[in-house]
């Protein structure tokens, strides 16, 4: 504890003002731009028990070792790509995310991309604005009812997507590290088999080393010429160059993307294609959810550190 009587924690990386205010109200907060700055000041950070981060900031093994009292890392978001999970687990450091509170909004965006790509809303909007309607009818789209939708990763977001797709009378199946015995949807142990089965393949799994470029040339080929890839997970999960090539060659029918490998710079070929719908990583970007995320991040820290 510090002179203020509050538990000392670190903020690593930028946070929205609302989140920073909540952290400062509950803890003795010291903010750093990134891991390098924290390591430079590590000798003066005795007693730090928690880290608040966006999940994108790097929290490596060296930093975890430099904070002997560290007990929890709380991430503002669903991902924890930048955290050395093995180092945290070896030290018994808990990693918390806000995936539960943002799942609904991200799933809404995923289904929005499914609908937009199936019915080509963006192209149809452009068609009307550019005067094409006066010249003739717009090309036919594809129905959702009865279509097969595969979910990659059945966490909070994946389950929310599956429920929404079921409400659209779609056939739903999923793949994950292990089968969820309580899930009502068909399970595929093999991702390529799920891709072959699917017309829409929706990526909802975590980022990080284990899923780096999980969606590659082979998976896109399995998805096939009628298939559409939807990514609301992390850009790192999809081999963007392979996706751009698949779109250009017609290996798959199209894609709907909210996340990219190098944000905010998507692959130029994806931006050039009218068969790709792109969004600026807005999955959880609503006023209500961002407020709930900030509170959930603080609550996770307080719970782990037994703050009254």
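^ structure tokens above, recovered residues below v
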């Amino acid at each position: 504890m510090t002179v203020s009587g509050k538990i000392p924690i670190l903020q690593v990386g930028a946070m929205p003002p609302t989140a920073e205010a909540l952290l400062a109200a509950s803890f003795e907060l010291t903010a750093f731009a990134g891991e390098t700055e924290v390591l430079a000041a590590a000798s003066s950070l005795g007693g730090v028990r928690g880290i608040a981060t966006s999940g994108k900031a790097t929290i490596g093994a060296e930093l975890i070792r430099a904070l002997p009292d560290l007990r929890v890392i709380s991430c503002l978001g669903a991902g924890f790509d930048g955290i050395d999970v093995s180092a945290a687990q070896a030290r018994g450091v808990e990693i918390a995310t806000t995936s539960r509170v943002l799942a609904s909004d991200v799933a809404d965006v995923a289904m929005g991309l499914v609908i937009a790509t199936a019915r080509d809303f963006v192209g149809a909007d452009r068609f009307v604005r550019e005067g094409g309607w006066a010249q003739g009818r717009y090309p036919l789209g594809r129905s959702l009812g009865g279509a097969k939708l595969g979910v990659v990763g059945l966490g909070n977001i994946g389950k929310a997507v599956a429920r929404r797709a079921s409400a659209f009378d779609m056939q739903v199946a999923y793949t994950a590290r292990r089968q969820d015995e309580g899930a009502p949807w068909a399970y595929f142990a093999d991702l390529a088999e799920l891709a072959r089965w699917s017309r829409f393949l929706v990526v909802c799994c975590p980022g990080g080393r284990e899923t780096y470029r999980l969606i590659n040339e082979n998976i896109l080929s399995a998805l096939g010429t009628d298939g559409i890839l939807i990514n609301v997970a992390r850009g790192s999960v999809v081999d963007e160059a392979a996706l751009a090539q698949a779109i250009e060659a017609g290996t798959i029918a199209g894609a709907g993307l909210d996340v990219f490998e190098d944000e905010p710079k998507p692959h130029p070929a994806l931006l050039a294609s009218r068969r790709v719908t792109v969004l600026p990583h807005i999955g959880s970007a609503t006023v209500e959810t961002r407020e709930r995320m900030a509170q959930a991040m603080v609550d996770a820290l307080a719970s782990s550190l037994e703050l009254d």
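The longest strand covers residues 8-12.
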